[in-house]
């Protein structure tokens, strides 16, 4: 083996490492949500790795200035509880696209596949990471996504989704060349110039069970229909059941938090922003109580699932 070949082998092993985990996380000042997210991913993924790095951006949204320092300390304590190495950024102004760009810029310096994980997702069961790496090691595979919907085999989608997703650094490096910080990070992958520039890359959805990795995937159009806009129809597939999680890999708790803060997300012309929902005092109180119940419920459900799996 020549020195160049040896270097290539080492680079490949590093890129698809089974020992070191790198996670990029855009987050807000909500340690109560982050604690549940990290707890669930610790049980189903993080513990598989001896070395862990978290790259964390905390945007100042939905937070009173007088409480930010206390919540910041709680967030840092949680991060160091689950990761050996933590890289942080606390910008003075919120920008989700700016956060994603900074996070990915840090991640590609490590030249390995990484997990992009927002701070408001629950992992429902253990991830067979060796199977994920097997997909990412295939030619032109950019991402492997953890899906909310349960009844999918291995399926290919035409563009990137930022549900919890494993990303190939070469894809991210190319994407950053045309990435715009005034556009929604996910939506701009469905639009030009990124849609055409990244057309050769493939994006996969995780199958519902580990055994399904060995089952040939079905035609993606059998599982979902295309939707898009009149100028560029069919840019993505609606694979997510938005009314219920149906026991998929992950569950979204962000919507409960938004309602508890009386916020709503507005999307216009490829950009997204947060606005006050004006739900009323009684509705706000109900949503805050509902959030606490949901966080409690998810933990209990995961604990019960673990007991059932152990008994079986």
Plain-language structure description:
With 312 residues, this protein is of the alpha/beta class. The protein has one domain: Spore Coat Polysaccharide Biosynthesis Protein SpsA, Chain A (Alpha-Beta Complex). It contains nine helices and 14 strands. The protein has helices spanning 3-15, 31-44, 68-82, 96-108, 129-136, 169-177, 194-197, 254-260, 281-311; strands spanning 20-28, 51-59, 85-89, 114-116, 121-123, 141-145, 155-157, 165-167, 202-205, 226-229, 232-237, 250-252, 263-268, 271-276. Helix 4 crosses helix 6 (169-177). Mean pLDDT is 79; it is low at 1-10 and 216-246.
Give a nutshell description of this structure.
With 312 residues, the chain is α/β, with parallel strands linked by helices. Helices cover 37% and strands 22% of the residues.
Number of domains: 1
Distance between the termini: 47 Å
Instruction: Work out the helicity level.
Output: 25-40%
CATH superfamily: Spore Coat Polysaccharide Biosynthesis Protein SpsA, Chain A
Question: Top keywords for this entry?
Answer:
312 residues; alpha/beta; Spore Coat Polysaccharide Biosynthesis Protein SpsA, Chain A; eight-stranded mixed sheet; two-stranded antiparallel sheet; 9 helices; globular; disordered N terminus
Question: Would you spell out the secondary-structure blueprint of this structure?
Answer:
Elements: H1 3-15, E1 20-28, H2 31-44, E2 51-59, H3 68-82, E3 85-89, H4 96-108, E4 114-116, E5 121-123, H5 129-136, E6 141-145, E7 155-157, E8 165-167, H6 169-177, H7 194-197, E9 202-205, E10 226-229, E11 232-237, E12 250-252, H8 254-260, E13 263-268, E14 271-276, H9 281-311
Parallel strand pairs: 1-2, 1-4, 2-3, 6-9
Antiparallel strand pairs: 4-8, 5-12, 6-8, 7-9, 10-11, 13-14
Helix pairs in contact: 2-3, 2-9, 4-6, 8-9
